[in-house]
Design goal:
Aminopeptidase, alpha+beta, 26% helix, disordered N terminus, single chain, globular, 7-stranded mixed sheet, binds zinc ion, 9 helices, Alpha-Beta Plaits
């Protein structure tokens, strides 16, 4: 699940090898470790989850400690391990692959999770958020549901898969900064070498209570900066108040919101709770002091778009709203984040096969965004599927029912076997 601000990263690089903390300017060959004896001992799923929860991988922090640990845990002679560092090298996406090469048909399966979490600073936590605690039939801790529970299962499904018997490749993709706008996934999309194709089918383990989801809304973040002129409030004729016109703009934005709410698309009905796009005036800042005519007013707007809806149209709508106040002030409109919607074909092998295995009919959509929006731009068919519910994510006492975790393990193992057992299944 994504929330918060997004930014963009550029001039990226892609590195392979074991030195997670080192950013590299060039793409290098994958490193394969032959030192099998040095391999870390296998943990139980619960122990691995406890280790992952123990790393404070809040998006604001580096994810290198948790990434280092996971790389050490999955590396083996039959594993190709790649790292895709952030521009400043403080964070890294991990891609681990085993089994046959995917080739131009891009068969095989990706298990994808994000390693970052939202902060756990709420005073209502009844136990340490970075210590896994089991009570009342659930695991408590930041990230248990969103989404270290799935990550633990995916890491084990990957580690346990026998490369010699895989008929199709199996990949593990663990990203950074999903919670602040899928920056890691976007970075991967921008820097992944085109001559190294990834499997075309992916499960992203967002908490969906083990329902297969093939669609989600996007999240477009727009900033309007209103500029007036500062002056001492005793001499108002020398200044231009930037906050007052914001009131007019807010009314225009409310009208735009209502218009968007009335707009229906055929896909809207797959989001029964909120079958339309949503515009939220989420934050407003302006003014310095009571005796100063404010020079600036900044309005941040989040827009959750339905799959297939055009982001440009909404940006133009905001620009049109701004024309109502332009004259004495200026209003600049800027897109500060763009998580694309996810719309995976119903007939995509991963959707069809997982739904069939689970006995699920029909299609599901959710209102939160994920790494799937960006990853699908690499031609990857993504479904969301994972244990836990989004209802408890981003809240104090985040939890994951133990029985769901256990069921997810069995289902994931079964699906990986089924999907990577023959190339035909994963095409
Ligand atoms: Zn998530």
């Amino acid at each position: 699940m994504v929330r918060g601000e997004a930014g963009t990263e550029r001039d990226g690089s892609f590195a392979a090898g074991t030195a997670v903390s080192a950013a590299s300017d060039e793409v290098s060959a994958p490193e394969r470790r032959d030192d099998a004896a040095a391999r870390q001992a296998m943990l139980t799923d619960e122990q691995l989850l406890a280790r992952l929860i123990g790393f404070d991988s809040t998006s604001a922090r580096s994810n290198l400690p948790i990434a280092d640990f996971i790389c050490g845990y999955v590396e083996a002679p039959d594993v190709a391990l790649f790292r895709s560092p952030s521009a400043d090298g403080s964070k890294v996406n991990i891609v681990a692959v085993k089994g046959p090469a995917t080739g131009p048909s891009r068969y095989g399966l990706i298990l994808c999770g994000h390693l970052d979490t939202v902060p756990a600073t709420e005073p209502e936590w009844t136990s340490d958020p970075f210590t896994l605690v089991e009570r009342d039939g659930a695991y408590f801790g930041r990230g248990t549901a969103d989404m270290k529970g799935f990550c633990a299962l995916a890491i084990h499904a990957f580690r346990e898969a026998d490369a010699a018997t895989l008929a199709a490749p199996l990949a593990l993709l663990l990203t950074y900064d999903e919670e602040v706008g899928s920056l890691g996934a976007r970075r991967l999309v921008d820097t992944w070498p085109p001559d190294r194709p990834l499997p075309r089918q992916a499960i992203i383990g967002e908490p969906t209570s083990l329902e297969v989801v093939r669609m989600h809304k996007g999240h477009l973040k727009i900033r309007v900066t209103i500029r007036g002129r500062a002056a001492h409030s005793g001499s108002p004729h020398l200044g231009v108040n930037a906050i007052e016109p914001a009131g007019v703009l807010l009314r225009e934005l409310a009208a735009l919101r209502e218009r968007l709410e009335r707009e229906r698309t055929p896909l809207g009905e797959l989001f029964p709770d909120v079958p339309h796009s949503v515009l939220t005036v989420a934050r407003i800042r302006g003014g310095e002091a009571l005796n100063v005519i404010p020079e600036l007013c900044v309005i941040d707007i989040g827009v959750r778009l339905l799959p297939g809806q055009d982001a440009r149209g909404v940006v133009e709508g905001v620009q049109a709203a701004c024309r109502a106040i332009e004259g004495s002030v200026t209003a600049d409109v800027e897109v500060v984040g763009d998580n694309p919607p996810l719309l995976t074909d119903e007939a995509a092998p991963v959707h069809r096969s997982l739904s069939e295995m689970l006995g699920q009919s029909g299609s599901r959509g959710v209102s939160f965004a994920s790494d799937g929006g960006w990853l699908s731009t690499l031609g990857i068919d993504c479904v969301l599927w994972g244990p836990g519910t989004i209802e408890v994510a981003h809240k104090p006492d985040e939890r994951l029912p133990v029985d769901e975790f256990v069921r997810a393990r069995e289902l994931l193992k079964r699906f990986v076997r089924r999907f990577t057992g023959s190339p035909e299944d994963s095409l």
